[in-house]
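Have a close read of this protein, sequence plus structure tokens, and explain what the tokens say about the fold. Thanks in advance:
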Amino acid sequence: MTQLTDRTASLSSASAVERGRAVVLTTSFLRGIIAAGLGLGVFAVLVLAMWISSPYPDNGAGGALRVAAALWLLAHGVELVRPDTLSGAPAPLGVVPILLVALPVWLMYRSARDALEPAEGRPQLTALGAVCLVTGGYLLVGGAVLVYVADGPLTAHPLRAALTLPVVTLLSTAAGAWTARGRRLGPAPLWLPGAERNRLVRTVGQLAARRGSVVALRSGSAAALVLVGGGALLVGASLVWHGDLAHASFARLAGDWSGRFAVLLLGLALVPNAAIWGAAYGLGPGFALGTAATVTPLGVVGTPQVPVFPLLAAVPAGPPTALNWAAAAVPVVAGPAVGWFTVRVAAPRYAVRAEAWGTGETALTAALGGAVCGVLMAVVAALSGGPLGNADLAAFGPVWWLTGAAALGWTVTLGVPAALLLRAWRLREPRTKAATLGAEPGVPAVAWWRAPWQLVWRPSVWRPSAWRRLMWWRGAVAEVPAAGSRASDPADGHNAQDIAGGGSGARAEAGAAARAETRAEAAEAFDPDFEPYDFLPADAWYERGTRGTRWAPAAVAPGDLLADFAAAPPLSPESRPSPKPSPKARLSPERPSEPASSEKSGSDEGDAGGDPGPTP
């Protein structure tokens, strides 16, 4: 009977584990389906709102939903095709608004990361299992959307969809799983030979190599962000400069408020693309406006075929000017950014030379950061462009390999010297300042050329005692004495050596009074309503001569100090307190009777050996 019970319990526990595993697998698969459905829902809501508010609805609600599904595919990098054109030939649409890509990528990332969160009482999925399940659910919805848009006004390119949609989904879910696992790097691939795997572990797997790789990734990413931000600044300035053309194209595209709102949303979605085009323009290679025109800071080559759109109205035209050449300031700023983010770790502030990285390691890390920046700029340049039609409209945007090469050249050429110079500056030996302002105690010393800046960011200069530092026109510049040297005080005309070397207290007080008078005169010249203090300043209290005079009695022997006090008389048996006083006696003890004055005088004479002091 016991064996049957144990067997039943083991079977029930095994079935519970199997049920838990099935629940986890199903939940992970459903997460991918839900992520795809949420993205589709957002696009459908936006398109249906534009269709409802439009005064000229076309193709009914089904056509609007097919347009929303096609835009969802475009957000994954899938190239769309317009079958109905004026020429009769299908026209491709491959410029992907990068801002639209953020929503589906974030949904896939969160789904994979949530699938790996531990749940109590359920088995834990592996990273590979979570990626496969979430990707499978997402691609199931993607395949259904591809079939749904086949009869719509915008269809998907089959080959581009078969390559792009799975790659984007797999990369996004893999990033989510890697984050959920703590961003850990796995072991070396097993398909590598043993010698190559060991060499890889010895070189890339070391702590110094991993630290340099992380710093290079950070510096390269920061430089790429600086380039894109500078490109956005260039686009904004050009839009303001060509504001009339941009407004005319905006009004020409749509006459009603719903159409203008749709154009505005499309323009906002294309702002990251325009920023990348601006970065390529600042780097030098520029970008293409069709197959027959290229826009660079040196001018426009060819005849651009520009469709009507507000962002394209900001494209510079005409001969190049100094404003066009000023776009080179974008890579000039991005290059030192690589050096700055490298030296932040290689030689942090207040670091000693022994703790900092070497010159070769710093230069190599900065060069790797430039390479990372070049790769990132090449990738985003490839994502930001594409075709907008056939013939002359078949190429729009920057050339990815030219943009990456230009970013690599700028960042390495400027970043490596900037990193070495900043490292040398931070590891320089500290120098003693020969002249400062306001060398009085408690007031920080400030060089005369830095004094105006101190008023802005240093709160301590707003104290009344700090105003004297700014009076350099009255000769308030004081020399900072080196360690162990003796300086003279220009305020009282006396040598500080005389005061410190055993000068009298009267002379120290005279010097302090002279200094106080000089301060009063300076304050009176600075502020006519100044009233001098009616007491001596506290500086005299800390003078060496005053301290010597004040502590002179403490230099005698302890016996000499005790000789100035009268000895206490011995206690008589009657005046001694009882060994165990009562509580009432503790609260109000009786004072012992005082001995006669003659006895006290005699005892004082006998103990002190001299004239007795006054009787207390």
